[in-house]
Amino acid sequence: MSATTETLGGLAGSGILDRERIIARPGFNRWLVPPAALAIHLCIGMAYGFSVFWLPLSRSIGITASATCADLTLLSALFTTSCDWRVADLGWIYTLFFVLLGSSAAIWGGWLERAGPRKAGVVSACCWCGGILIAAVGVISHQLWLMWLGAGVIGGVGLGLGYISPVSTLIKWFPDRRGMATGMAIMGFGGGAMIGAPLANLLMNHFKTDASVGVWQTFVVMAVIYFVFMMGGAFGYRIPPAGWRPEGWTPPAAKSTMITHRHVHLRDAHKTKQFWLIWAVLCLNVSAGIGVIGMASPMLQEIFAGSLIGLPDLTFSQLDAGQKAQIATIAAGFAGLLSLFNIGGRFFWASLSDKIGRKNTYFTFFVLGIVLYAVAPSLADMGNKALFVLAFGIILSMYGGGFATIPAYLADIFGTQFVGAIHGRLLTAWATAGIVGPVVVNYIREAQIAAGVAPGPALYTGTMYILAGMLALGLIANALVRPLPEKWFMSDEEVSALQAKSVAANAGPTGSFGIGTGGLDGKAALAWAAVGIPLLWGIWVTVQSAYKLFG
Q1: Within this chain, do residues 196 and 53 fall inside the same structural domain, yes or no?
Q2: Which CATH number belongs to the domain containing residue 357 in this structure?
Q3: Which of 56-60, 123-127, 178-182, 380-384 comes out lowest in average pLDDT?
Q4: What is the total count of domains within the chain?
Q5: Backbone phi, then psi, for 332, in 5-degree steps?
Q6: For residue 193, what is the enclosing H or E element?
Q7: Rounded to two decimals, what is the model's pTM?
Q8: Does one domain contain both 27 and 126?
Q9: What does 480-498 look like in DSSP terms, one character per residue?
């Protein structure tokens, strides 16, 4: 009785953002947690769609055309107030996004485990939305360094904390379906651009005038909208009491030595070879996929050229400006279609991994990816647009699936106690891939052009084979992943001491999926509608755009 009183007293005296305040009480519906995670991920996922601002910003002074300066360098672009920025100068914000995402997740992942997902979600909202507001000031004052600092650096920190904030929580709420749970949330990061990019276009068209391209006003409106959604998501987070299990579920007898019921401390995870093998698995899978994302539009245009508009005899270099504009619009539909595969793959592959195992899922990624990359040049030579698009759609589904499956892979190998922080450190693989993938693809393409290769299928043949080689290395790394030796696991006493603060009074089952047991009740339905309706709108807009590819 005294222990119960002490627990409840501690909860009453703690701050509203503290971890102890968000321990779920009996009757809480665990299906309220995934939409809370989606509310944050759909907002920070706009990082993928930020390129929608590059062209308008490249004429923020000239308005109708860029006010160019012949002597502009990257350093002078940071401080100029009289010259329009180049797209390449603005593109560094995209690089900063993912470098800071991986770095901040690695640096503050341990803090997140101690502070809890609500506090991390609030800090993420302040950084991401505050960074966008600072970027708006940078647009108004025409200071690129402010945009880099605001959106790229401060916003990037918000990306990292927001990205990993729900991982550990969802895995603990869904021990019976780890892959599916993380797939639901991380699907949102892939879908953020589908909502944000068309919304940004609508807002810029609304705000643009003869004196403004409408970007800073769009930044302000989107920052406010995102802040509301992200704070709603952060305050929707709850963590299960220590030892909680879904109603009627008991941990199955160990069917695989690849799944542990023990826990590895954060301080030890990176000392194991398994951590670095999984790091390589993620880095190589992402490097290959992110390279395709970066070149999707020009690749389709240069390979299929005139055939995209019913003129199959015309190569890309033979098209006039108007025709190139036409196929650019169609290629945008291709990019949109790939984003749908990216999103769907996050949920599909992560859910499938619950059935076939995480290691087998990555084996599938690498073997199937190698085959698809190897046959892609042949599909391009054949001019088979449908099969070419399908091949890259599957590749991008596995790119997204790799992100969604990796948290469950880590939980299988290292246990769930520190999985969020371990995942944060592993995301340095993403930061590395964000540099390696595009650099490899872009430089190979430039080298081919310098060697006299004309735009067409041959321009990308070497690239496809090199990306297949990356996946082959990933296949080897995945094959080498083994269960951890006993010495790396914490003792039961150490785990109990860490979990002591998460023990709530009368902590019983808090609902499993099913009517009458805390499933899709009214509150859960509203929460899912709040994130589902914007996501469906984004999918609809993307499908309309992608239809032009075959229409």
Answers
A1: yes
A2: 1.20.1250.20
A3: 380-384
A4: 2
A5: -65, -35
A6: helix 178-207
A7: 0.84
A8: yes
A9: T--PPPGGGBPPHHHHHHH
